[in-house]
Amino acid sequence: MLAYLKKLLAHPLLRDLAIDDPRTTELRRRVIVEKPFLRRLYREWYDRLWATLPPSEAGDVLEIGSGGGFLQEIHPEVITSECFPCAGVNRVIDAQALPFADQSLRGIVMVDVLHHIPNAEKFLSEATRCLRGGGRSFAGGTVE
After folding, report:
1. Which of 5, 15, 42, 133 is deepest in the core (most CB within 10 A)?
2. Quick one: pLDDT band at residue 78, thresholds 50, 70, 90?
3. CA atoms of 75 and 55, how far apart (whole Å)
4. Which residues contact 22 (CB under 8 A, 6 or more apart)?
5. How far is CA 136 from the centre of its chain?
6. Residue 6: pLDDT above 80?
7. What is the DSSP letter of 116?
8. Separation in Å, CA 107 to CA 55, 59, 61, 68, 72
9. pLDDT-based confidence at 140, cuts 50/70/90?
10. 33 HSE (CA, 13 A, CB side)
11. CB atoms closer than 10 angstroms to residue 34
12. Contacts of 10 (CB under 8 A, 6+ apart)
């Protein structure tokens, strides 16, 4: 029954694609960008996330799972990333082994991504390692 409901409620472009398929990610971005309501919703969420970050002189901001979104259009300085190559992404990375120096980032943001990371505990450990004191992960939570 659940599988039937998921298929019924899925967007027609995404209905038969696996959730972690790069084509799904690129089509999801298209759906978000082309639907005015969704674009406004994401824009508001991006603005709220960005407002929680420390000042820009405190280091870089990494977005994890950027493939389906458009944060870089609003904040060009963000480092976009995804776990596979796709359009509009600066880096292909594994969120469980972040390729950044200790305490080098002022923030890590993501939208609808944590449930895709196989080992969230390992990611959170990596995020803590990479964030500067006072840096932020997600939409809150100060790392000391």
Report:
1. 42
2. very high
3. 13
4. 67, 84, 85, 86
5. 14
6. no
7. G
8. 10, 8, 5, 19, 14
9. very low
10. 14
11. 9
12. none
